[in-house]
Design goal:
It is a single chain. By secondary structure, the chain is mainly alpha-helical. It contains 12 helices and 5 strands. Strands 1-2-3 form a 3-stranded antiparallel beta sheet. It has a two-stranded antiparallel sheet with strand order 4-5. Helix 3 runs antiparallel to helix 4, helix 4 runs antiparallel to helix 5 and helix 10 packs antiparallel against helix 11. It is elongated and about 60 Å long.
């Protein structure tokens, strides 16, 4: 058994209920005490990620050492790794999250992380490997923006514009993802020297941002000349089950393969962390 790595302190006022109920419910397979500590670390990540990503990353690492086989924990670690620009670690954690959860909802972050380690070709391959029709609109928009960025990395400005020309690019309708999409489209138009069109889309982005700022609960708004019309869990305590004290060999082998793939596919990529930073757990004990 390896010595436990010290964990960042948790303020007394942070409780498990500060974590979103859906995330807390994923922790029910842990013992009650461990689930509560993991939930508090994840709640701290949510509190710190925007202003202090390095501190948020410390809490994500602590949660991963305690509960490395929980999808939301690996997803959180990936997000904090990305926020601290450790793109190689972000890739490994994102792949592990996708394997555990079976979801493609973080595909845009995978594409952008591939860009971060200097592999725009690989980024495009990753993005083309998913069924976009099966993605939710917000994920589809995020993927389009990431794919456009990869095209720009390759100097393919016209193709970068094409990546953004998706059904969600509608100047008269706005959702929470619209300002980012409109702004990205405007930026590529500017790169192409199409100044008037760029100004139009920047203006639509500003209108959508202003409209959405009125109420974060909008499902959909219609944007016409600056006028806007608005249209239209209880937490279960973690089950105090006995933790799995046996290492999951298949999962560990898959993690090792993810790490090797990330580290070896590009000699210029940042090395993947090999310590306790993203381990699978045996009830709260780090294995790496």
């Amino acid at each position: 058994m390896r010595e436990r790595v010290p964990e960042p302190p948790l303020p007394e006022e942070i409780t498990p209920k500060d974590l979103h109920p859906a995330a807390r419910n994923e922790l029910k397979t842990l013992s009650k005490e461990n689930a509560e500590q993991v939930a508090r670390h994840l709640a701290m990540v949510a509190r710190l990620i925007d202003d202090e990503p390095a501190r948020a990353h410390e809490h994500a690492l602590a949660a991963s050492r305690r509960a490395g086989r929980i999808a939301v924990v690996r997803e959180t670690l990936a997000i904090t790794a990305y926020a601290t620009e450790d793109f190689a670690l972000a890739l490994r954690e994102l792949r592990t999250y996708r394997r555990i959860s079976g979801k493609d909802d973080q595909i845009a972050l995978i594409v952008d992380s591939e860009r971060g380690v200097g592999r725009p070709d690989r980024a495009l391959e990753e993005g083309r490997g998913v069924d976009r029709a099966a993605l939710t609109p917000d994920v589809r928009v995020a993927l389009a923006i990431a794919m456009s960025g990869a095209r720009l990395d390759r100097g393919e400005t016209e193709l970068a514009l094409g990546e953004l020309e998706i059904p969600e690019l509608n100047p008269d309708r706005a959702f929470e993802w619209s300002p980012a999409l409109f702004s990205a489209y405007a930026a590529v138009l500017e790169d192409l020297g199409r100044a008037d069109e760029s100004a139009f889309w920047n203006q639509r982005a500003e209108v959508a941002t202003s409209a959405l700022g009125l109420d974060g609960q909008f499902d959909e708004i219609f944007v016409e000349d600056g006028l806007v019309e608005d249209f239209d869990d209880d937490f279960e305590e973690p089950v105090d089950d006995a933790a799995d004290d046996t290492a999951d060999d298949a999962a560990d082998a898959a993690d090792a393969a993810d790490a090797a793939d990330t580290a070896s596919s590009d000699d210029n990529a940042e090395p993947v962390a090999s310590d306790d930073s993203a381990s699978d757990e045996t009830e709260g004990e780090p294995e790496r």
